Amino acid sequence: MANIAAKRIKREFKEVMKSEEVAGGAIKLELVNDSWTELQGEIAGPSDTPYEGGTFVLEIKVPETYPFNPPKIRFVTKIWHPNVSSVTGAICLDILKDQWAAALTLRTVLLSLQALLSAAEPNDPQDAVVAKQYKENPQLFHMTARHWTNVYAGGPASIVEFNQKVQRLLDMGVDEHDARVALSTYDWELERATEQLFS
Amino acid sequence: MKVTIKSWTGVATWRWIANDDNCGICRMPFDSCCPDCKLPGDECPLVWGACSHCFHIHCIVKWLHSQPQQQCPMCRQDWKFNNK
C-alpha cells in the first residue's frame, strides 16, 4: 500500500479511537487485516428514526490512492433505506463519490453515514423500490425499515403482523430473506409477494 | 573579571506559521514533512491557497492532479495558489 495511504489510515485510526463518538458508542472502528487496507465500521442507528436501537456494520476498503480517492464503503448489515441497496448494501452518498475531499476522514465519513440514516435523499436513490415506498407510503416505509432494523441490526422488536407474514412464506418453503424482500417490495401484501416468489 | 570568547555556536529553531497543526491531506504535522519526504523545511514546503487553507506542496499538487476540478479539499472553493 502506498506510503501516504497507510500512514494516514494509522493516524486516522488513532484519531477515531480517541473521539468522543467512540466513547459515546455512536461509532466504532476495527481493523480487519494488518495491512490497513480493510477496516470494519459500526454505526448506531440514530434516535427518532426507524433505525434506532440497531447497530449497522460497514465494510471499509481503503484504496491504494487514498486519500486522493474515497474509501469504498458498503453496508454489511441489511438495511431498508432509499440510499442503500437492500441487496448489496451499496451506498449512494455524494461524498463517497464525486464530492469526496481529502480533508474528510473515516470519522467524518462514518458520521455522515449516520446522518444519512436520519435524512434520506429519496430523489437520488440507490434502491428505487425503497425510495418509491419512502415517497408514496412513508408510514409503511417507516414500519418496514423498523422491521429490518429489528431482524438484521438487533433493534427492538417490532411489528408482529410482519413477522407472521414472513412466517407464512417460510411455511411454504421460501427462504427467509427472500420472503422479507418480496413482502417489503410489495407493501406487505401477502398475495402479491407470493405471486412474485412463485412466478 | 574579563572574559575572552574564543568561539561560539548559534542555535536557532524554526516553525511554519500555519492556520492548523496538521496537513489536511496527509494529516502529518506541518512541523514534520509529507509522507514522501524525509526532512521538513525547504525540501517539503507549505503552500497557501487564496482561500487561506494550507498544505504541504507535495500533497496539494497530488490532490489537484487527482481531481477533475481544481478545488481546495477543505472548503471546495476553486483552488488558487496565494502568491502573497
Q: What is the CATH architecture descriptor of the largest domain in chain A?
A: Roll
Query: What's the overall average pLDDT of chain B, rounded?
Result: 92
- Spatial strand sequence of the major β-sheet of chain A: 1-2-3-4
Percent range for helical residues of chain A?
40-55%
What separation lies between the terminal Cα atoms of chain B?
A: 51 Å
Number of helices of chain B: 1
CATH class of the largest domain in chain A: Alpha Beta
Oligomer: heterodimer
List keywords for this structure.
heterodimer; A: 199 residues; alpha+beta; Ubiquitin Conjugating Enzyme; four-stranded antiparallel beta sheet; 45% helix; 12% strand; elongated; B: 84 residues; little secondary structure; Herpes Virus-1; two-stranded antiparallel ribbon; 1 helix; 12% helix
Please give a quick description of this structure.
The complex is a heterodimer of chains A (199) and B (84). Chain A is an alpha+beta fold.
Could you please describe the fold and organization of this structure?
- The complex is a heterodimer of chains A (199) and B (84).
- In chain A, 45% of the residues lie in helices and 12% in strands.
- Chain A is built from eight helices and four strands, in the order ααββββαααααα.
- Chain A is elongated.
- Chain A is α+β, with helices and mostly antiparallel strands.
- Chain A folds into two domains: 4-118, Ubiquitin Conjugating Enzyme, CATH 3.10.110; 128-198, no CATH class.
- Chain B is low in regular secondary structure and 84 residues long.
- Chain B has a single domain, classed as Zinc/RING finger domain, C3HC4 (zinc finger) (Herpes Virus-1, 2-Layer Sandwich).
- In chain B, 12% of the residues lie in helices and 7% in strands.
- Chain B has one helix and two strands.
- A two-stranded antiparallel ribbon of chain B has the order 1-2.
- In chain B, a hairpin with a 5-residue loop joins β1 and β2.
- The longest helix of chain B is centred in the C-terminal third of the chain and has 10 residues, at 57-66.
- Chain B starts with 45 loop residues before the first strand and ends in an 18-residue tail after the last helix.
- The model of chain B has no long low-confidence stretch (mean pLDDT 92).
- At the A-B interface, α1 of A face α1 of B.
- Chain A: GO terms for molecular function: ATP binding; ubiquitin conjugating enzyme activity.
- Chain A: InterPro entries: UBA (IPR015940), UBA-like_sf (IPR009060), UBC (IPR000608), UBCD4_UBA (IPR042614), UBQ-conjugating_AS (IPR023313), UBQ-conjugating_enzyme/RWD (IPR016135).
- Chain A: Its EC number is 2.3.2.23.
